[in-house]
Design brief:
heterodimer, A: about 200 residues, mainly alpha, 10 helices, B: about 80 residues, 5 helices, elongated
């Protein structure tokens, strides 16, 4: 009976050092490791049409700047920062029609600062995925995220959709922890109300 | 300290869920949510929102795009090295 001895995968940082020294196979390994995640991030930050360009641009920038990676953050955080900037540059460069703000979906309160909606109305966003057709929800989810202000979208996508830690998002975006929390919070409030409205209930 | 208004609780919600609030404020919010059906429902939907949107926007990299990315990078990195 033959046994396969598992070999340890090289760390991102080890691959980055080899790629920076001119080892193309190490760079290809980095691409293979991150391409699906960068594509998903690009779709969430831009759209299906622009995501392929963002994907290419990200890895080209990674290649060009490998020698400037100093290991001050994890390699993945550094790469996500490049991808996020590439997506933002792409959004700025492409002519987009103005989108309607999500402000209308923020929670409503009465004069005493109490929720204006009933508990059942407030709960309903939790069941949006059970109440809506999957394909419709996917389309509306992309629309809703695209309607967030850029700064909120970046923070929300990295923190809540890519599930990075708040500290890593702060590092990737170059802002304070409290700023990340504030942006993610506002995005969650808007999108929670947006999901309620999709199900047909006031936020 | 259940005189905390829902609106104040909502403002603190992200910090509350991240454990970033001072202990006494966190405890006051716990108490408020335990006694306020509206806030309990709001917190549940606030927590569910990221998961629902994460699942709804999950995509996989098309094989054709993977191949075109490899071809693009091979061509550009070769050009970069020889420049």
């Amino acid at each position: 009976m033959s046994m396969v001895v598992p070999t340890a995968q090289p760390s991102d940082e080890a691959l980055a050092a080899r790629a920076a020294a001119g080892d193309d196979s190490a760079f290809e390994a980095i691409v293979g490791r991150y391409q699906a995640r960068v594509y998903r991030l690009a779709c969430r930050l831009t759209n299906d049409t622009d995501a392929p360009d963002v994907l290419q641009e990200t890895f080209l920038q990674v290649y060009r700047h490998l020698s400037s990676f100093r290991g001050e953050s994890q390699f993945g955080t550094w790469l996500y920062r490049i991808a996020t900037n590439a997506a933002l540059m792409h959004r700025r460069a492409s002519s987009r029609r103005p989108v309607e703000s999500l402000e209308a979906f923020l929670p409503r309160f009465d004069d005493q600062g109490k929720h204006a909606a009933t508990p059942a109305e407030l709960q309903v966003a939790s069941c949006a995925d059970e109440r809506l057709d999957r394909r419709l929800l996917a389309e509306k989810a992309r629309d809703g995220i695209a309607r967030l202000p850029d700064l909120y979208r970046e923070a929300f996508v990295l923190r809540d959709l890519e599930e990075m830690s708040t500290a890593d998002v702060a590092h990737a975006l170059g802002v304070e922890l409290a700023t990340v929390r504030q942006r993610v919070h506002r995005a969650r409030l808007m999108l929670r109300g947006y999901l309620s409205a999709l199900v047909g209930v006031k936020p | 300290m259940n005189e905390l208004a829902c609106i104040s609780g909502v403002e603190l919600l992200m910090d509350y869920l991240e454990g970033a609030l001072p202990a006494n404020v966190h405890a006051a919010l716990d108490e408020h949510v335990a006694g306020c059906a509206r806030c309990a429902a709001f917190v549940a939907s606030y927590r569910a929102t990221p998961r629902i949107l994460r699942e709804a926007t999950a995509v996989t990299l098309p094989a054709e795009l993977e191949r075109s990315l490899q071809a693009f990078l091979r061509a550009r990195t070769t050009a970069f090295k020889s420049s």
